[in-house]
Design goal:
Elements: E1 13-19, E2 28-34, H1 52-65, E3 68-74, H2 76-82, H3 84-97, E4 105-109, E5 121-124, H4 132-155, H5 161-164, H6 170-179
Parallel strand pairs: 1-4, 4-5
Antiparallel strand pairs: 1-2, 2-3
Length: 203
Amino acid sequence: MKQLPTQHTQLVEAGTDEAGRGCLAGPVTAAAVILPQDFTHPLLNDSKKLTTKQRDALRPIIEQEAIAFSVAHCSVVEIEEINILNASIKAMHKAIEGLSKQPEFIAVDGNRFHNFKKIPHECIIKGDGRYLNIAAASVLAKTYRDDVMMALDLEYPQYHWKSNKGYPTKSHREGILKTGVSPHHRKTFRLLPEQLEIDFRVS
């Protein structure tokens, strides 16, 4: 696989990305990562192109080699209050705020972002497959969010979050149909197809 460039500029640059925007339950999680400019790793890429085993192997490498990294969540309550797009951006802001070193530039995966502390930024479509610092952020965001959903699965096994991580799979929606919603479901989302009625009692 062709080695990706580490970052977009020559400045002290943080890559940031989120995980969980398309889920029906659980938080949206973001990470921000500042890598050394000479950082390389042949496996690191968009987290969606990696296996769970590969992501889990990369996480400690990223955390050890990064100049700074931070992970942050926005809860279901925040998602419901400000919508998923704004919650995703808020989670990115929280992650950047949590960095031990302030970046001079922010490389953002996707096409939407709000200014953060007057630090220049650029939105980069499919940035997690173009720059290693964004790819690293995507790996951290994905693995930390998966940890949350694995823990919640112990309490709510009927939704099969251990395997679907809150995404709208058949098994997840069957669990909603059979037992209603949990406190961790995003009730402003379309949890079931329109022809099915949702029982909004909390299970």
